[in-house]
Amino acid sequence: MITPALTVSNYRRQRVRRRARIGIKVQDLTTACANPAPLAHNRMPLYDSIEDVWRRADVPVSSLERLAEADAFRSLDLDRRAALWAIKGLAPSVLPLFAAAERFANRIESEFNEPSFPLAPMSEGADVVEDYGTTGLTLRRHPVSFLRDALTRRGVIACADLTRTRDGQRVRLGGLVLMRQRPGTAKGVMFMTIEDETGIANLIFWKDRIEAQRPIVIAAGMIGVTGILQCEGEVIHVIAKEVEDLTPLLARVGQAGMARQERAAGNERTIAVKARDFR
């Protein structure tokens, strides 16, 4: 997977040789922009600045802000903070003088030149949180990797460690909830898949365990589970015995790498995990 980039991305994802590039169809973009498709690179010649995008694509500033939050301006050598700062300097409307300049010179001239000041880069954890908030995924470090030390102190092992664990042993896992499935033919049994930075683990919840801790099992975005490992050939799963809601830990991801002053400001966002639920 390759990150979205306004100067090369399509509206939706696209194949690039043997990889896929995320498109610019980020969350809430269609709400802010009635027709975001012209932003895609295959609809217009390449852009050379945010102001160039704003004037030629004729999109609201709010749409540019969503793209900046999705880190889509890296191809213009602008990270999230630099792109948002540049967008703040856009004028509220295109003045007639510049409209004329576009017609005759087919280029954009900045309204005024300001000295550039380097902005402090976002922390890696903050970038991951913003990725999830805009595209629903990240190509950076897995969120759970930022929490590994805290999980280890709780006795939580990595999903990859299950392959080196004996059948019937009691284990404790933690991860993001990817999928819940509760087939009508399974007599109330639920199957769940969780994920950490090392891989996935498949969990089985009997009906009595679901009823005992239903709010966590049904709604938590990140869970910790204690259970019994069962190995049948290459098939590995854990029978859940105890469940803990670890979703509050996700607030720490955005704080990773932040200076103390930034953490004290309390402006960090958290990751909203959207699991897929099946019947």
TrEMBL record:
A biological process from GO: DNA replication
A single MF term (Gene Ontology): 3'-5' exonuclease activity
Keyword Ribonucleoprotein: no
Keywords: Plasmid
Domain DNA polymerase helix-hairpin-helix motif per the UniProt entry, residue ranges: 44-82
Record-linked InterPro entries: DnaE2/DnaE/PolC, DNAPol_HHH, NA-bd_OB-fold, NA-bd_OB_tRNA
Protein family: Belongs to the DNA polymerase type-C family. DnaE2 subfamily.
The keyword RNA-binding is annotated on this UniProt entry: no
OB domain segment(s): 171-246
Name of the molecule in the record: Error-prone DNA polymerase
Pfam family, one: HHH_6
Organism: Kozakia baliensis
